[in-house]
Amino acid sequence: MNVTIIGIGLIGGSIAKDIRKKGLANKIIGVESSKEIGSRALDLGLVDEISELKIAVSESELLILATPVDISLQLIPDLMGMITQQTIVDVGSTKWDLYNSIETHPKRDQFVLAHPMAGTEFSGPEAAVEHLFEDKVCILCDTQENNLMHLQKAKHLFRSLGMRILLMKSEEHDLHAAYVSHISHISSFALALTVLEKEKDEKKIFDLASGGFDSTVRLAKSSPEMWAPIFRQNKANVLRVLDTYIEKLNAFKEEISKGNKIELVELIREANRIGKVLK
Fold first, then answer.
1. HSE value, Cβ hemisphere, 13 Å, CA-based, for 275
2. Share of the chain above pLDDT 90, in %
3. Which of 1, 38, 147, 181 could be stapled to 109 by a disulfide with Cβ–Cβ 3.0 to 4.6 Å?
4. Residue 43 pLDDT more than 70?
């Protein structure tokens, strides 16, 4: 089949690499709003051609929507109006707003809401890598509303990428994503801002930043164009997790200010329980 990838950055480009390596497509068509990015994706061999959206849709059986989540919402009305029998798979990090935008559409059953839980801190076509999705989880949302043929096509895609599939409702997905993904990025952004504000000597940051700091702040390199819309779309859940996070930070602040070793040990020991979950 011919596959169109709309948005050829880290996720879209990595999908393109694995699709090509595994021989899942006769032709990979790229759609990009930026001519420069489209040209780079073409030069890197991620796609066979760059096309306008309407032409790409007409020539493809599978459409993968890999744009930032705010752009996806903007594209949906036109995209849904263009399809006939094609399958659309969205791979964004939020789902509830997108679900609401297509819930009553007559072609709703052709649209598969997916979130492959994989990524790096890098962006753009050059960030695309092979095997990014291997042994990772892909969440499919509200699949009871999908036509079986379109759902199976999406499942085959992600299983071919080496992913395990979990099923959730969109609302449930956004809640859990806020706790296990979105807060990690906010924490990293906040830590980077703190260090940059208080430590003015950039050489000292570079020289002293060991494994712990580097791994914690790594996500602060992530694309603002991608993450700002995610935080906005998932605002209610993100604010809820931020309240809890600030509460825990204040608990550490209080015990440190009082010099309470026993209480600090207990806080850290309680946090250590995450090791039983993440083995």
1. 6
2. 87
3. 147
4. yes
Buried b (16+ CB within 10 A) or exposed e, 134-169: eebebbbbbbeebbeebbebbbebbeebbbeeeebb
Residues of the chain with CATH 3.40.50.720: 2-169
Q: Which CATH superfamily is domain 2-169 in?
A: NAD(P)-binding Rossmann-like Domain (3.40.50.720)
User: Scanning the structure block, which residue is given the tokens 């090791």?
Assistant: 275
Residues of the chain with CATH 1.10.3660.10: 173-277
* Residues 179, 99: Cα–Cα separation, whole Å: 20
Predicted local distance difference test score (pLDDT) of residue 22 = 94
- Between CA 156 and CA 65 the distance in angstroms is 17
Q: Which CATH superfamily is domain 173-277 in?
A: 6-phosphogluconate dehydrogenase C-terminal like domain (1.10.3660.10)
Full-model pTM = 0.90
Rounded to an integer, what distance in angstroms lies between the CA atom of residue 185 and that of residue 221? 9
Structure-block tokens of residue 207: 């020289």
| Predicted local distance difference test score (pLDDT) of residue 160 | 96
Closest CA to 94 of 185, 170, 187: 170
